[in-house]
Specification:
With 413 residues, the chain is α/β, with parallel strands linked by helices. It folds into 4 domains: 56 residues, Beta Barrel (OB fold (Dihydrolipoamide Acetyltransferase, E2P)), CATH 2.40.50; 168 residues, Rossmann fold (3-Layer(aba) Sandwich); 75 residues, Ubiquitin-like (UB roll); 77 residues, Alpha-helical ferredoxin (Fumarate Reductase Iron-sulfur Protein, Chain B, domain 2). It contains 15 helices and 15 strands. Strands 12-11-15-13-14 form a 5-stranded mixed β-sheet, with helices on both faces. Strands 9-8-7-10 form a 4-stranded parallel β-sheet, with helices on both faces. Strands 1-3-4 form a 3-stranded antiparallel β-sheet, with no helix packed on it. A hairpin with a 7-residue loop joins strand 11 and strand 12. It is globular. It starts with 9 loop residues before the first strand and ends with a helix. It binds iron/sulfur cluster (2 copies). The site of one iron/sulfur cluster has 14 residues, from helix 11.
Length: 413
Amino acid sequence: MSQHIGAPCKPTVAKRQEVKAGDVIGDSDAFVSAKIHSPVDGVVKDIANRSHPVLGRELAVIIDVSEDNTAKLPKPESFESFNLQDYSQEQILEAITTAGIVGMGGAGFPTNVKVAPNEKMPKHTMIVNACECEPYITCDYRVMLEWTKQFIAGVKLIQKASGCKTVHIGIENNKPKAIAAIKEVLSSTSDSESIDVVTLKTKYPQGGERQLINAVMGKVVPTGVIPPMIGLLVCNVATAAATAEAVVLGQALTHRALTVSGKGIKNPGNFYCPIGTSVSDLIDHCGGLTDDAVKVVLGGPMMGFSIADMETPTTKTSGSILVLTKKEIGKANYLARQTNCIKCGRCVGVCPENLIPCDIASSVRARDLDRANRFNMSACMECGCCSYVCPANIEITGLIKTGKILNARNNRK
Ligand code: SF4
Ligand code: SF4
């Protein structure tokens, strides 16, 4: 029931109730929230707390899949003759809300709230985050390559719904086939004049909103300023593809493309799978673990979360599951013990948000959230660079994530 930023949903179904794929199973009256739908036909087995990839344990609706459930398949062919003029701004916004779409790149901000025109903060430019800069993850790449028309249809629909005059698709230069496919669709379809493709240098981190805006437009977004305040809207590839499914096919956000990778998995790949599938089911589907698998991560190697409970369900924002071996993690790191901060400043030098990660981390460790907030903890984009370079092996990013969760819990009270 917690798959987005904002108010979690409350279950709208009861134990033993039959549900059909696409039925609403969770909802909220809050302004910032998004509906949750069943991805399968089945019966509600339980409503109980389950492991959550980020928040510890959260309320979940557990559904026994019925034997005659039909697997939902992607329908990229439905967008061959897409015509933007068939959909009004109101229709698009309504479909996004009804489908429960949220930012699927990781943030999980409800898309209807983000995209809806706002008189106080009018949006003029949309930037599509097509970078997918973390190693291993390729699900957005496959969407751009295999469902190009669907992806571009989603971009045009979000542009129309938001009122943005211009769209820049920011994509890294290590994806030449996707760049060619997108340019081909843009040059052969109508309503593409205001959309361009900006090829970027491949580097990490690039997918954070501030970094992307700077790379695409050369604009520096100051700390404390969010993109809508300066007329910008950032959305990602999966969100655009889901928007096209919602508007054109009337489908709720129940499935997504997801990468299962790492040397610890026998048959890695990209899958279009029901949201809520457990990590263990996905690993089994990929042939299981190799003998030297030691770590399972939900998300990428830099920004993801290690998980211990294999029954953890995927959510709308889960783009990948990695299973890493001792060799991939690095023997030194695998065995390394955390030591005291030696004040080397490396974490400060690499932080793309110009923060002082060591001081934020030590504040969180001391449970001094006021001090952590004075160091601007909320501006951290959780890129993981500080932890990566720390010679003392301090889990700086993990501490910052914990600090943010504690902040959110305090705010809820
Ligand atoms: S994870 Fe570390 S390096 Fe990355 S933005 Fe946060 S504090 Fe800076
Ligand atoms: S990189 Fe690690 S050891 Fe160096 S200042 Fe930052 S936290 Fe301390």
